[in-house]
């Protein structure tokens, strides 16, 4: 992938041995404006299509002595570039250079303080040069080095790890037992910055340069007459991807938004206004809400809801594409808003994680339509996409928006999905989000939404007894959406939300708060 990227930016290669922290290494280097890419640790160096300026070996859940322990291609040490091994990566370097690793009597997990050792050797000392006062580091390992590899020096110790960091006496090969990529390691960023300097890597990865280069790349790929079709959901990824396509090829890019009847209140209208009127993107909104809602009648099983919505989406989109082709001529490409975490997930050493829910995606479109994929955000993390969106003039409320699932409100209405139930939930959700905005806490929450429960509860309004529905409020805080905690609201804000929902939404007399973490709960209720 991405030959163009590698010819434009100096890059660092991260070889992933399966640590839960591997993707954080990528994040930290990107934050230093250094482009980096992660590949599985089984990558053969001779098969690399680009030349990295440095290589990182990540941590791993394995021990180097496990029979099935993943092994780095030893050719990595003759590439003539610096290598930094983190935790298991250190042990892998040691193992390759005649060192010994033994199981530690207990697993070391938590904070430790580094004691730096000045060797007087310029190469060795470069990794810790100019580190600040706080030398707290984060340890998480079972094995540790018991015999130094040949020709290496110790460059740091801790109370329990006599070889907490090591460096080769001649080559820029370093190993650290601690995890510099997690924020608990106070000087982690400075350490990575030092490694970047040792690699002689230019720090030119910014969203400003990315826009120009990506636009040039798209123009070259699509050619002067090629045409691109894209599906827009209204979320940040597809909006940014659409804007970049529009900048690159103007009206030869055509976006389609399918209103599936289970969007947030007025969403189709708002996206139409923003993308098409304000940002000039060529956009068609197809109202297929009747068809979707018809097919959802009496369906309660969440996976069936997802399948129906996914399949109906493809059907509607394809029909629209056919109509457009008849009218305007052939499309060669399909735009997808794939992000780097999806790419990492699919190339990860551990392989794609088990599917807990079938996530809706438009990949199925390709088979019949014979469209080639175009993925302008494939190298980016979510916060980079947001920065890109801001630079391209996409309004803040679109750029900073919480994610919204493809199957929409259908997986937030726990009972049968009807137009009335959708309206009721849209209304409650709108109030909830409005109050969160007013209280200025929207950006502290990763994802907030209302859920409509399929139960009735007794209430009293005026002198009348009511028997109405219940709304649950969900607000999750997370960085990767794999694990999450519930957001601790100010009780006064909760009162305002609850009062407004029960007063303004006909058919609701009770509001409850979801206080479950993920795991064991998931973020969505279905
Ligand atoms: P869960 O509920 O699995 O959600 O903890 C994690 C993230 O994924 C989103 N999600 C979906 N997104 N199609 C989507 O496009 C789906 O079927 C789907 N299910 C969950 C969820 O909103 C959260 O951001």
From TrEMBL:
Keywords: ATP-binding, Glutamine amidotransferase, GMP biosynthesis, Ligase, Nucleotide-binding, Purine biosynthesis. It is found in: Cytoplasm, Cytosol. GO terms for molecular function: ATP binding; GMP synthase activity. Gene3D superfamilies: 3.30.300.10, 3.40.50.880, HUPs. GO terms for cellular component: cytosol. Catalyzes the conversion of xanthine monophosphate (XMP) to GMP in the presence of glutamine and ATP through an adenyl-XMP intermediate. This is GMP synthase [glutamine-hydrolyzing]. It comes from Malassezia vespertilionis.
